Amino acid sequence: ETGVTQSPTHLIKTRGQQVTLRCSSQSGHNTVSWYQQALGQGPQFIFQYYREEENGRGNFPPRFSGLQFPNYSSELNVNALELDDSALYLCASSQRAGARNTIYFGEGSWLTVV
Amino acid sequence: AQSVTQPDIHITVSEGASLELRCNYSYGATPYLFWYVQSPGQGLQLLLKYFSGDTLVQGIKGFEAEFKRSQSSFNLRKPSVHWSDAAEYFCAVGSSGTYKYIFGTGTRLKVLA
Asked: Confidence class of residue A97 from pLDDT cuts 50, 70 and 90?
């Protein structure tokens, strides 16, 4: 148990739709990172939020967007869903931004796009 | 470019046998190194991490890893594998001044009874 919770755990969407995934960070953590893990692959960094601001972004298009709230919980939004967006989306929290601060993962949200 | 390579996609060992999972990284700066384990359908659990200091790092569940700068490696070891260790293992690297981890593609471990 890492104290990082994600919802929903599973969902199915149709191509072209929009989806919102939610994450509650571990108590005392002010930084949230999102990763996408396609089947058979390692996690790929999407972006990180630190104190409600986007702190860095990986190679994902603008239709992947996020928010962080004052309580440090976070949302990942994906617009215009494509079949290749089917993946496990992992949220991770850490005490502060920066790679020296170990990130702790939630159980993930499985997204299937049909 | 930064990268992490896990050369073994699948490894099968017998219960009680020793285990070594390989990880090689390509990174310009001093790396921060991690091993995570993922059981089927689950998130990632941190096994151990290396930031600096002693190059032999002890983790949870009896795992250890050794940082070898000259070989750009951070191999994970366990002297005696248990059936419950069957899972997928990911090596990851980060560095000072960055905010993301780069993960390898994982090694799937199968344990024979």
From this structure: confident
Determine the distance in angstroms separating the CA of A15 from the nearest CA of chain B, rounded to an integer: 23
Cis peptide before B31 (omega within 30 of 0): no
Which amino acid is residue A75, in one-letter code? Answer: E
The predicted-structure confidence for B27-54, as pLDDT tens digits, reads as follows 767 789 999 999 987 889 999 999 888 8
Closest CA to B90 of A49, A54, A37, A79: A37
3-state secondary structure of B106: coil
**Test the B interface: residue of A45, A59, A110, A111 with most B CBs within 10 Å:** A45
Tell me the C-alpha distance between A44 and B104, whole Å: 10
DSSP chain A: --S-EEE-SEEEE-TT--EEEEEEPPTT--EEEEEEE-TTS--EEEEEEETTEEEEE-S--TTEEEEE-TTS-EEEEE-S--GGG-EEEEEEEESSSSTTS--EE---EEEEE-
Average pLDDT over residues A99-109: 87
Token digits for B34? Answer: 């991690």
* Residue type present at position A104: Y
Task: Average the pLDDT over A37-56 and give the result.
Answer: 92
pLDDT at B12: 97
Please name the residue that has the structure tokens 């994906």.
Answer: A78
Question: B88 to chain A: which residues are within 8 Å by CB?
Answer: none
How far apart CA A70 and CA A62 sit, in angstroms, is: 23
